[in-house]
Specification:
Blueprint: E1 6-7, E2 10-11, H1 14-24, E3 29-35, E4 38-43, H2 44-60, E5 68-72, H3 77-88, E6 92-96, H4 102-112, E7 116-119, H5 122-131, E8 140-143, E9 157-159, H6 160-169, H7 171-184, E10 190-195, E11 205-209, H8 210-223, E12 231-233, H9 241-254, E13 257-260, H10 267-274, E14 278-280, H11 283-299, H12 302-323, H13 330-351, E15 358-361, H14 368-376, E16 381-387, E17 392-396, E18 409-410, E19 415-418, E20 423-427, E21 434-435, H15 439-445, E22 452-460, E23 467-472, E24 477-478, E25 484-485, H16 487-494, E26 500-506, E27 513-519, H17 521-530, H18 538-542, H19 545-562, E28 573-578, H20 598-604, H21 606-614, E29 618-626, E30 632-640, E31 642-643, H22 650-655
Parallel strand pairs: 3-13, 5-6, 5-7, 7-8, 8-9, 12-13, 14-15, 15-16, 27-28
Antiparallel strand pairs: 1-2, 3-4, 10-11, 11-21, 16-17, 17-18, 19-20, 20-22, 22-23, 24-25, 26-27, 28-31, 29-30
C-alpha cells in the first residue's frame, strides 16, 4: 500500500496490527468458527481481505468519520471483523450485549447515536426494528444470518455478505479514501466504545483509544509470555471488555487464533475440541463446571467415587505446590503422578482444559475452594483484577505467586494507591479517555492527574505487594456492633456448594447477617432424580424439606469457616430464605454480566428482608417476573425462614 500504517514506535491502531499480521503471519490461522458441526478457518491474510471488503462496503453505504456502528450478536469472526472494519473507516464500533432486551438496546443505540447496526441474526434484527422509532440517527441494519428474514421489508436491511460484495465491486471507487482514513488513525484515535453493565444506574459509554488497547495488550501479553501459536475460545459477551481485550487486543498484538463456538449449547463440546492454551472465564463458568463434575461423581460407581475422593485429597494437598515448582516429597509426587493418569488428566480433558498454559478468572471474586480445586488439578488458573475503565488490567498474579486470597501485583505500567477510606485507585496507559457525553461522571471517576476510582475497597499487603479486594466500597459497611460487613466474601463461600447458584447477604448497620439463597436447578434437580423425588417447578423443589436441610447445612458450614476469620467473623449468616425464583437480569435483579443489583433486590424483596429480621417463621410474597417472550406476570409463594447455627470466633477465644 502507498501509505504508512506503522510508525517507528510500532502499529498505532487495531487496523494497523491487522495489516502487520496479514504480512507477518499470512498463512497462520487467525479465526476459526464451528458452523453446522464443522470448523471453518481463516488465515490472517484472508481475515485482512474480509475486513477490507466490509470496510469498503461501509464506505459505499455512506459511513462518515466519527459515526457509530453497533454490533450485536454471539461471538462470530464476522462480528469481530465488523469492529475492525468500523475503525478502518474512522467509525467507532459499539458492541452490545446480545441478551439485552429491546428497551435496553434502545438506550445504548440512542445514546451513542448509531447510524448502522450489524446484527447477528433475526432475533437481534427484531429487537432493533421494535425500537427504531425511538432512535434519532439510526439508518440501516446489516444482518449476518439470513434465516427468517427473507420476507422482511429490506428498505433498511442489507445482508452482511452483500455489503462485502458491494465493497469489492466499489474497490476502485473507495480504496483511496479507505487508505486515507486508515492513515489518519493514531494512538489517540478511538478504538472502541464499551458500555458498563449499569449496576447502579444507566450504562455509561467507556471510550477506549488505540493507545489504551495496544499498550494494554502489549504489556499483558509480555507478562504471561503469550505466543502467536496460542489458541483461545471466544464465548463471553462481545460487549464485555474482557472479551474485547482477549479476542481483539491481545489476539491482534500476538497474532494468536481466536476460536468461536457454534452456540452457547455446544460451548463445552467446542471447548474440548479446541483445547485452548490461553483461557479466561468468570467465576460463574468455573462454578458451573465444578457443579457438573460433582453431579457426575454422585452418579459414579462406588469405586470411581472412592478413587476420585482419594486422589483429590492428594491433589488439594500437593497439587498447587507441584504446579508452582515447589519442593514436594517423592511419595507425594508418585501419588500425584498416578492421580494424573487416573483422575486429573481425564477430568481436565472432559473440562476442555488439558492444554491450558495460562488461565484467568476475573469479573468478581471467586470462592477460594473453587479456585484451589482447579489449581490442584495442575491447571495454571490465576486471578486478575480490572475493569472496563482500565482496559481490563490493573493487577494480575505472576506465575509462582498465585494465591486464592489476592488478585496479584500491579500489571506493567500500572500504579496503585489506597485512599483513607480503603478505596483502591489506579492509573495506567489503559485508563479510559472519557465517559461518552458524561463529563460529570468522567470527572468523578478520573481526576486531573489520571487517577481512577475503582469503587472497590482493598489493601496492599506489605512485603508481597499483592492487592486484596474486600468488596465493593459501597457494599462494605459496619455491623451494628462495629464489625466489618463484607457481603461478597460470604456470598462467594456459599456459592462454592454445587447446590447454591446465587446468594445475597444483608447486614449493613444490622445486629446480624441474613441471606437470600437461589438453588442451582441443575444440581438439585439431579439430586432429586437420583432420589426419586418428583417436583413440578423450581419453586416446589426449592421449598422441599430435604433441600432446605441441605442448604442449611451449607450455610452453617460457611459460618464455621467465617468464624475463623477474626476480621469478618461478624458476617456469619443467622437467618436465611431459599427464594422462590432465580434472580434474573430480565427482571432487573442482576446486570447482564450477572452482578447482583443490591438496591433493586432490597426494594423488590423488602417484605422478605423484613421477615428475616423480625423473627417471622415464614413470609408470603408476590413477585413480578418477565417471561422469555417479554410478557410480564407474577408468582406468589410462602417462604420458610430458617435459623442457622453461628459459631464463636475461635481465634479470639484462643487469644483469651
Amino acid at each position: 500500500m502507498a501509505y504508512t500504517l506503522v510508525s517507528a514506535d510500532g502499529p498505532q491502531s487495531v487496523p494497523a496490527l491487522l495489516h502487520r499480521n496479514a504480512k507477518q503471519f499470512a498463512d497462520a490461522p487467525a479465526y476459526r468458527e464451528k458452523e453446522f458441526g464443522i470448523w471453518q478457518s481463516w488465515t490472517w491474510a484472508q481475515t485482512r481481505d474480509e475486513v477490507e471488503a466490509l470496510a469498503l462496503g461501509f464506505l459505499e453505504l455512506g459511513a462518515a468519520e466519527g459515526d457509530f456502528i453497533a454490533i450485536i450478536g454471539r461471538n462470530r469472526p464476522y462480528l469481530y471483523w465488523a469492529m475492525m472494519a468500523a475503525e478502518m473507516v474512522g467509525v467507532v464500533p459499539v458492541p452490545l450485549y446480545q441478551d439485552a432486551n429491546a428497551e435496553e438496546m434502545a438506550y445504548v443505540l440512542d445514546h451513542c447515536g448509531a447510524r448502522f447496526v450489524v446484527a447477528g441474526d433475526q432475533e437481534q434484527v427484531d429487537k432493533v426494528l421494535e425500537v427504531q422509532d425511538q432512535l434519532t440517527q439510526f439508518e440501516r441494519i446489516i444482518y449476518l444470518d439470513p434465516r427468517g428474514l427473507r420476507k422482511y421489508d429490506h428498505a433498511k436491511l442489507d445482508q452482511y455478505t452483500a455489503v462485502q460484495d458491494m465493497g469489492r465491486k466499489a474497490r476502485d471507487k473507495h480504496i483511496a479514501e479507505l487508505e486515507a482514513r486508515q492513515a489518519k488513525l493514531t494512538y489517540d484515535s478511538t478504538g472502541v466504545m464499551l458500555y458498563t453493565s449499569g449496576t447502579t444506574g444507566k450504562p455509561k459509554g467507556v471510550v477506549l483509544s488505540n493507545r489504551n488497547i495496544i499498550e494494554t495488550a502489549k504489556s499483558s501479553s509480555a507478562f504471561d509470555k503469550l505466543r502467536q501459536t496460542d489458541d483461545i475460545l471466544a464465548y463471553l459477551p462481545m460487549a464485555w471488555v474482557g472479551d474485547f481485550i482477549f479476542s481483539v487486543g491481545q489476539a491482534m498484538w500476538t497474532g494468536f487464533c481466536t476460536n468461536c463456538p457454534e452456540s452457547a449449547d455446544t460451548m463445552h463440546v467446542d471447548l474440548r475440541e479446541i483445547g485452548p492454551t490461553y483461557y479466561f472465564a468468570p467465576p460463574r463458568v468455573f462454578e458451573t463446571q465444578l457443579t457438573s463434575v460433582m453431579i457426575r461423581m454422585e452418579d459414579a460407581s462406588r469405586m470411581k467415587k472412592w478413587l476420585f475422593d482419594k486422589f483429590m485429597a492428594v491433589a488439594r494437598r500437593v497439587g498447587p505446590d507441584i504446579l508452582d515448582g515447589k519442593p514436594v516429597g517423592f511419595m507425594d509426587k508418585l501419588k500425584y503422578g498416578l492421580g494424573e493418569v487416573m483422575i486429573y488428566g481425564p477430568l481436565k480433558n472432559t473440562l476442555g482444559l488439558s492444554r491450558v498454559r495460562v488461565g484467568y478468572t476475573a469479573g468478581e471474586a471467586i470462592g477460594p475452594e473453587i479456585f484451589d480445586f482447579y489449581r490442584s488439578l495442575g491447571i495454571n488458573l490465576k486471578q486478575l483484577y480490572g475493569q472496563t475503565e482500565a482496559t481490563v488490567f490493573i493487577t494480575a498474579q505472576p506465575d509462582g505467586e498465585v494465591r486464592s486470597d489476592t488478585v496479584g501485583v500491579t500489571c506493567p505500567g500500572v500504579e496503585l494507591k489506597i485512599a483513607e477510606n480503603g478505596e483502591v485507585f489506579y492509573r495506567s496507559p489503559g485508563v479510559f479517555v472519557e465517559y461518552y457525553k458524561n463529563p460529570e461522571s468522567t470527572a468523578d471517576t478520573k481526576d486531573a492527574d489520571g487517577w481512577v476510582a475503582t469503587g472497590d475497597a482493598g489493601f496492599i499487603e506489605e512485603g508481597s505487594g499483592h492487592l486484596r479486594i474486600i468488596d465493593r466500597a459501597k457494599d462494605v459497611g459496619k455491623m451494628a456492633d462495629g464489625n466489618l460487613f463484607a457481603p461478597k466474601y460470604v456470598e462467594n463461600k456459599l456459592k462454592f456448594f454445587p447446590n447454591i447458584l446465587e446468594a445475597v447477604v444483608f447486614g449493613n448497620g444490622r445486629t446480624e447477617c441474613t441471606a437470600f439463597i437461589n438453588i442451582d436447578l441443575t444440581a438439585v434437580g439431579n439430586w432429586a432424580e437420583r432420589n426419586n423425588i418428583g417436583y413440578a417447578s423450581y419453586q416446589e423443589l426449592a421449598r422441599h424439606p430435604q433441600v432446605m436441610g441441605q442448604i442449611q447445612s451449607h450455610v452453617e458450614e460457611v459460618n464455621a469457616s467465617i468464624a475463623e476469620d477474626e476480621m469478618l467473623s461478624g458476617c456469619q449468616v443467622h437467618r436465611f430464605v431459599v427464594l422462590h425464583k432465580e434472580l434474573d437480569a430480565d427482571d432487573g435483579e442482576l446486570t447482564r454480566t450477572r452482578k447482583v443489583r443490591r438496591k433493586v433486590i432490597g426494594e423488590k424483596f423488602e417484605d422478605i428482608i423484613n421477615a428475616l429480621y423480625d423473627g417471622s417463621p415464614s413470609v408470603s410474597t408476590v413477585t413480578e417476573v418477565t417471561y422469555e417472550d417479554g410478557r410480564k406476570g407474577s408468582i406468589s409463594a410462602t417462604l420458610e425462614v430458617r435459623d442457622a447455627k453461628v459459631f464463636a470466633d475461635t481465634r479470639k477465644m484462643a487469644a483469651e
